[in-house]
């Protein structure tokens, strides 16, 4: 039962009689309360319906309004509450109960660091995802993975299919070539760290860079079940108030809060399984194909040809023997065929009174991967407390402790380390038995320097994380008058992350023998991030309540500290697993400290919900810039006109017609240390010293984005149908690149501002309640969006982007003026007979032609909920280097076909391995049954309020022409130009769940 508090005050009614005119006035007093919490609702509008006569409630919800006569109808409304019409017929105190709004147009959206606005009045395209949309249909491992298909203008790429993620979000295209393309994440006012942490695995596998180590990003530590809603500021026009951290957009996450009234307890248990989403299959080997794979004719050297023939005949004999003794071994199934068990338990309690509200939640998720001994587990406990100290002071605390662990095994790129499963499977023959003997000894792989069964069983690639996120918000109401309300807010937070990584390869591993003789790497990595905001907000009402002005201004401070230590050892003593038990030891340490400081101010004006405008400005300085004391300015401006709110609008079927436009600028500072010249250790003649490498640029400036956006929003039939259209043009200037410098300078490279690019795109969304009745409800939504990019300035010759491909021979991202920043370029073999010509060609573009999503929710007979989400990605190419490897190893499943044979007869150029990566995917589907209340009451009395059972799935089917595991791929992690290049990834999985939800 909802708690209601009624405070009665003396109601004085004065009737004035004047001898000249008969004129009567009545004064109505009362209180507006929140029907859910019983609290008074402050600053809510109370207007005599049909007139401009009105007032607003005070801090406690009390109001007083004078009207000409009774009876009268009062319109009570405010942001965040449904509008209520109240007829007052007689004198006396009244109490008006209002409900929190659930309608899309009344949804509250953040517009500044201290203000919000109704979606109906928004001048930017801000996407929102509710808790129900995020996790209401099926189980979700990570927040970013849960956003697939739910937000326009967002391109999501999985850099790993391992449990615990590895996901890259791109909001409205590429924001940086060398730098960060992940958005800024803010949880309850705390700027959180989404870092990818290298483990040192590359020193054993031979991979080239730390971003190829299959690491997850640390957004995986945030439990999606704790989230109330997510707001995504996709472009600079919306994110400008966040300054130099917002160049790639901003994702604002609000977690669940307590509500006044009876304490509610919610319990849920999910159980499920992980299975591989798509298998490549086994090549249909025959004795003839085995012989052809191993025999190389050589008429010029009969002896060599004889040796090749003998080797081929030996393989045929082994093949025939395997066929006669149980058949071929499907090593793909042995490695990727594990059925991983998933279990997630969630328990929360929320409640409160008129002074204190609380939410406490805990969860534990344990997810096994499709590779044995891989998995991810996360224990999370959260406490959110909101306390009203007095009528003047409020405080909110948001606390979250997380312990997460993952085991990711070995996938991705390497250079013959004998560890990556994809590499090994590309060359492993299914007639060779690689399982251990009775004594536990693993045989060597005769075709590749690694036994995948040994690696799966004996080697380790693990990480663990202890994380504490604390936010605090202190609000002081400095002034509370009828037309002026001023508050001062201090909002701060800390995100502390202690990460440990561990990689171990036994000395008995095939590739280690005679080389490293065993490898171990241990990482101890600590990250501390502080942020503090202090600002004042002044709400002013003028012109009889028709004009509302919200002015805010304040300061912002952010500090990031990082200390990464990686200890590695090789030549291990037999059976030892720690660095101190190795002969050759190396320690790397990287420390950084970054500080940002800024001022911001913003003014929002709202005239009768008809014309809404915003002007804002942000000034930031950073220790990452060349001049640490120089402030950079980031303006914003927006205007929205709600045509349907004007008095002349008479077309009732359209209740909203809004035209909007916005402009804004954001920035992104250089990487740590870019302003300084690096000194590298050198040993010359046995004497230690320092040498120079990359020259710093003391004048380096932030990369900046300037975005212009226009849009149209429609609401039809009381917004049962809504339509949103947005076009944007985002220019990214002063991109930071590295260039070669003359050797006479004493340096090799220099990093500085050298390029510009532009992103243009269109976003469309339609949502509607198609049908409503007592026994059937259908809600649907369709999204459509695309982005186009072009490099518009390049002060250096066109070049292959380092770390974003494998050279022009196999294909790479290529930065070239006048071309998309997402193009893939390679040398070509126009005759198909090799060798490659020294001419470059754009062989692909990873950016999709467009993306669409189709989301549906059904409710049948008030008890059955059905939902599904389809996602369509049209176009966009991948460079499928996994197939390059299987072709090289002659294990591709289609090599017996004419297409496969044709590939073997052509040179290994990039054009040969570029494939269309479009798809249609059933991303989510679910069906739930809610037990009727009379059955629950009969079984449990008043103890249980609701029970819901359901089944669901993720990635249930995919229609695609792409020939490898998943068209959503990335070999390079989440940073930089990371999508569209596949090299033997951890395959994606399908998930199937059973759900039990109980509310007490």
Automatic annotation (TrEMBL):
Gene Ontology BP annotations: siderophore transmembrane transport
This protein's record includes keyword Signal: yes
A GO molecular function held by the record: siderophore uptake transmembrane transporter activity
Any Gene Ontology CC annotation: cell outer membrane
Record bears the keyword Kinase: no
NCBIfam families to which the protein is assigned, alphabetical: OMP_RagA_SusC, SusC_RagA_signa
Localization terms from the record: Cell outer membrane
Domain spans labelled TonB-dependent receptor plug: 121-250
Keywords: Cell outer membrane, Membrane, Receptor, Signal, TonB box, Transmembrane, Transmembrane beta strand, Transport
Designated name of the protein: TonB-linked outer membrane protein, SusC/RagA family
Domain TonB-dependent receptor-like beta-barrel: 411-956
Organism from which the protein derives: Aquimarina amphilecti
Mode of membrane association: Multi-pass membrane protein
Protein family: Belongs to the TonB-dependent receptor family.
